[in-house]
Specification:
The chain starts with 25 loop residues before the first helix and ends with a strand. Strands 9-6-5-4-3-2-1-10 form an 8-stranded parallel beta sheet. Strands 11-16-15-14-12-13 form a 6-stranded mixed beta sheet, with helices on both faces. The chain is globular and about 75 Å long. The longest helix has 17 residues. The protein has 752 residues and is α/β, with parallel strands linked by helices. The protein contains 22 helices and 26 strands. Helix 1 packs across helix 14 and helix 6 packs parallel to helix 7. It binds 1-deoxynojirimycin.
Amino acid sequence: MRVLHRVFLPSILILTTTLAFGQQSPSDIDNKVDALLKQMTLEEKAGQLTQLANKTPESLQAIREGKVGSLLGVLGAENANEAQRAAVEHSRLKIPLILGFDVIHGYRTVFPVPIASTGSFDMPLLEQAERVAAKEATASGVKWVFAPMLDIARDPRWGRIVEGIGEDPYLGSMVAAAKVRGFQGKSMADSDSVVSCAKHYVAYGAAEGGRDYNTVDISEQLLREIYLPPFKGAVDAGIGTFMSSFQDLNGVPGVANHHTLTDILRDEWKFNGFVVSDWGAIHELLAHGFAADDADAAAKALKAGVDMDMVDNAFEHIPELVRSGKLPEIVVDEAVRRVLRVKFEAGLFDHPYADPNREKTDILTPENLQVARKLAQESMVLLQNKGDVLPLAKNKTVAVIGPLADDKASQLGPWAGNGQATDAVSPLEGIVAKIGKEHVLYAKGVDIPSYEKTLGAGVAAPAPPSATGVGGMANLNKPASVDDAVAAAKKADVVVLCLGELAGMTGEASSRASLDFPGDQLKLANAVLATKKPVILVVESGRPLDIRWATFHTQAILQAWFPGVQAGNAITDVLFGDVSPSGRLAISWPRTLGEIPIYYNHRATGRPGSPDRWHTGYLDLPNTPLFPFGYGLTYSKFSYSHLAVKTPTIAPDGTLQVTAEIENTGSREATEVVQVYVHDRVGPTSRPVRELKGFERVTLRPGERKAVDFSVKANDLGSYDPQVHWAVNPGTYDVWVAPDSASGVQGTFEVK
Ligand code: NOJ
């Protein structure tokens, strides 16, 4: 076992008081930070605020010279320790680095993409998954993760909708808190905890036209009611850092936005950690037309409230900016204080090095994979199950068809940490493992042509297809052929058709102007459907695709998203009924592109949607999504009844208590995600037709019934008036206890 170094800190009082779990008290830390700050030159201060990418001879030299406070993208304990040694043994002040990486949905044990796992509505499991991610990341020398990604999005064209938390601010803030708890654990200083980073602050997901990095112009009310709450949830959960967003918000780029970074984040929310810019965003102020040169950009970012520069090297201008009087040193000092404070809180001064032994014991363990499998099971959404065709019997012959059926890389999704495609279980492998290859026929059918532009960094390298054997697998190494697919379908009892997008068609810089199935996938689907065999469509994608055809022509639709390393096992567990599906949609599912944006919590209009022509809507489509937010089937049926508002009148500082009876009226045990929504009938602004205010996963046996209780603080029912004052409005409210955002049992209550 390697002897861990203890950093020698010159002229710092070593205070003895510590808090539980090895935490130091804030005043201890502030004293240490101040003592250190006093010794720093302007160049060293600029260095603390500078993050570079990767461990290179140049970056190591810069670290030794005190010009670097953080590196990103250094993986592996030995690599991390080599970089760290340059800082703590060879730089003048021996200040440790904080080493960051994108651990968006798992490190090596890759979990389902966030848009999927959000739909599990299972906060303890999300927390557990991030605990696993933190354990694996720290074993590999990563102490800071650029997650959770908390961008609300209402536009599936935007490629990064896959990385986020869907469309709901309440669900988003719950997910934020669960993830922060998971990443940071009991203390960020624990050896298996990381500092987490809320991103991309803020409103990045509102990009016009769904084009990544595009401009955003929204009202202050919309910002506060929809886009900010998940970030507030992260602050309340004690998150250590934030990342500012690329895009401009009402004309002011996220990285230079004093209103969001200082007025709201620091002054209103009292956030005490530090803010890092996104990759290259400070320099991009020039392209925005917001700064004249890098020095100007650096000053604007710092004055707005950014503390650390990600890879721009723009903060090398700090000394000259201070000396010329263009930047008050107090601004720089405050930024340095914030960075150092987080480094102390993360225990980096005491334990800067990673233990290389943990790399062998803590990564991709069976326990970790089990969490990934469970979260994947709970994240996929059963959208259709005509005639209860699912679950499938295990003694039938199944034709597994489609370009994603054995694409291991795409199972991982677009931002798979340190995930390896070879670790992933493909749907084909999962099905073969479950029912034996003698029951399985396979044909790829068609290839999905990749868009050149979207093959970006972060997409796991392709792996060879699985070597599941011969027999029904005879097509494994053959070029894709629709004829082979048809032949396989004809020989089978049922077809599992795996279509969708390649992982690289989603994520950063991967917006699409269409929700189609790329390439010739529909040609394949038509040919397979013509065999008249029952077809189970398994969709893997990072956004809702246009599946209207499938609702007519297939028996069942399972939206699997990108389920992660255990994809094939989890899909198979659901298809064959070893678990009942329980995932729900974290975003409204549009019928087609022209409906975008469509989201459940839209404001009421003066002419609400109706078949009558003179109402909000389209001539050629209903005024509803194909599937609403919160929707998802199980293998049972649930009835909702006996809604009772226990508090028919509440004070603005009171609590609403409502209950409803949920009964499993089907024939299988299943888990229902019970949701509670409210609607303020008369407000100072027109209020959303519904707003989610609570949820609970409830598992019931056939015939079992349960009264499910919800408590909602009246203060959480408030809204902003046009002058942006928060108030809980008196008057009548509707409340629903519901299986999704478009149905449920309804009651009313009064706020007085
Ligand atoms: C750019 C992305 O927007 C951000 O999410 C990520 O954390 C950084 N690059 C670092 O990789």
